[in-house]
Amino acid sequence: MNGLIVFNSANDVAYQNLNGPLTEKICSIAIAQGLLPTPGAPLDSNVLLQIFSPIISSQRIMHCQFDNAYASFQCENGFNLTFGELLGFTFLKIGQVEIEQLMRQLGVAMTLTRYCYGANLFGSQAGAMQQELLTQCINCYESQLWQEDQQEQQAYLLEALPKLLINPELKRTVHVTLDALLEQLRQTGGQQRTHALLLVSNKLAALNSTRQALPLAPADLLFLAILSRALQSQRSQRAVAVFLQGVTHDVNSGCVPCIVHISRLHGHQVLLQLIEYGHMPLTSSIYDTFFVLQKIVAVQQQGDADALKPAYESLESFVSQTLTALKRHLKQKHDDLESCVKKFTARWENLRKMYVEFFKSYERELLVRIESNLPAFVEELKQLFTLSLASCDIASNQQLDQLAESASVVEAKLLEFAEFLAVKAARNISIDAYLEDFPGLVHFMYINRSSGQMLAPDLRQGQPQLLPKSKLWHMVEFTRNYLKKGQTTVMWKDRTFHYSYFLWFEDLSGGILKCSFDLQQHFLTTGFGNGNGNGNGAHKSPPEPGCLPMDYYSELAELCFPKLAGGKVRVYELFCIHLGLVTATCAVEHARRLVATISDVVGEGAF
C-alpha cells in the first residue's frame, strides 16, 4: 500500500495519488463507516476528507498552537503515516515501508510539487496538466526505488546523477555541439538564459549553459532526469513548464521558471533544452513572500507576539522588493496584470496599516481583523505570481518548433557516435579495472555533492553478484544515520565485507578544507543547521541527507564554513566496500588513492 494525500488550509483534499491496494483498503473502511454504499463505488475527495479529517485537524492544532506537529504515526501490520507542511498545505504520505524511507519519499514528493507548481501550489490556474505531471514524476521516482535494475536504484538511492565517462575527443565534440545549439537559440530566438543537457541511458554525458543562466542545483539535475524518464513513453518531442531551484548561493534561486523541451534521439540519447524565463528578482521576491506569509500565519496562531514583529518586518521587506521589481521589470503591463498589481498594492496598504496599529496597542481585536484579511491578500499574491509569469516572453509555438529543429541538428551531428555512446553507457565503469591496483575492493560510489553527479561501477543485472544488493542499501542507510549525528567518517565490518564511508570538503582549487566546527555536539543539542535550530530541535526528526528533500550538503558546508562565500566549498562522499580481510588502514589508503585515480581518469573540472 502506498499513497499521498494533500490537504489545503481548509482541510479539503487538494491532491491525491493512491495505488490500488491502498484505494481498496480505504474503500473497505469507508464502506464499514457507511461513507460508501457498496464495493466498487468511486472514492472521491469527500470520503477521504471524512476519514482523515480528525488526523489532519489534530495535526494542524499541534503545529499551529504548540509548534510540535506529528512527524509520523506507526500502525499495525507495518502501516505507517508521515506528515509534512509546505506553504499552508499538509502532506500525508501513507505506506508499508520503514518510517525513515517513508519520510524521505514524502520529502521528495513535496520537492517535486514545488518543481511542478512553483509558489502557487495546486493553483487552479495551473490546470490538470501540472497535476498530471506531478503524478507522473512521483510515480517514476518511487518505481525506480523498487525496480530490479540495480544500477538505476543506485542513482536514485544516493540522489545523484551518474556521470558518463567518455574520451576527451568525443567529450569535446559533444560540448562543441551543445555550445553551437545554445548559440543558435540566442541568435534565432533571442534566448539568453539557456541550458542544454545530453543524457545517454539516463547518464549525464554533457551539460552546457550560457553565462546569463542561473547555474543548476544538484536537485535540478536529478529532477530533470526523473522528468525525462517520467515522460519517456510519450511522443519523441515534449515541452513542459517547470520551476527549477538554481544553486542556493544565488540571490535569485528558489523558483526559476523554465520551459523544458525534451527530445528523444537515436541510441538512447535524450536532449533537454531549458529556457529560463520571467524576471528573476520579481519571481524570487514573490516566492520568498509566500514563505514569510506562512511563517506569520503560524506565529499568529501560536499567539507569539514577540516573534510576530520580526516576521512582519521580513514580510514588509519582501513585499517592498516585489513592488520595486514590478516597477522596474514590468513597465508595460497588460490590463489584467495592471489591475492585479493595483489590487495587491491596495490590500497590502490596508494590511500594513492594521499591523502598524496592532504593534502600538497589541489589541486582540486588531489581530483578528488581520487574520481575516490575510487570505484575500494571499489570493492576490497567487494571482500576481501567475500573471507576472504569463506576461513574460515565453517561447512561442514557432520557437518551440525551432527547438525541435535544433534537436534534429544535434542528433545528426552525433549520429556517428550514437552506438558507441549507447554501448559505453551500458558499461560505464567496471570494477575489474580497479582490482589490480586495489586488491580486495568490491565496490565504490564516489559522489560530488556540489554538482550532483556520481561515479560507481556498474551493477550488471542478470549476472552473479559478489555484493548482494541488500548489503549496499543497508550501507547507505547506516552511514546516513551516523552522518545525521555529525560523523563524517564511518568504518565497520561484518562476516564478509569491510565498509568505509568518508565525507570531506574541498576548495575550488582542490585543496582539503578542515572543519574545526564540532558537528557532533551541534547536532546533539540543536538538530541540524537552521532547520531545527530551536529549543525543541533535539526532539524533532533531523533532516535526511540527500539533495531532493532539501539541499542537505550545501547547508552542511555553510554550517561548517560560515565565513566562506556560497559556492566556494565543494562536498564529496566516498563509499567503499572491501572484502572482510582488508584492514582499516588499507581501506583508508585505498580511498585516498582511489579518489586520485578517478580524478586522473575523469580530468580536471569534469566532475
TrEMBL record:
Residues 192-292 form the FUZ/MON1/HPS1 second Longin domain. InterPro entries: FUZ/MON1/HPS1_longin_1 (IPR043972), FUZ/MON1/HPS1_longin_2 (IPR043971), FUZ/MON1/HPS1_longin_3 (IPR043970), HPS1 (IPR026053). Residues 4-142 form the FUZ/MON1/HPS1 first Longin domain. Residues 440-599 form the FUZ/MON1/HPS1 third Longin domain. This is Hermansky-Pudlak syndrome 1 protein homolog.
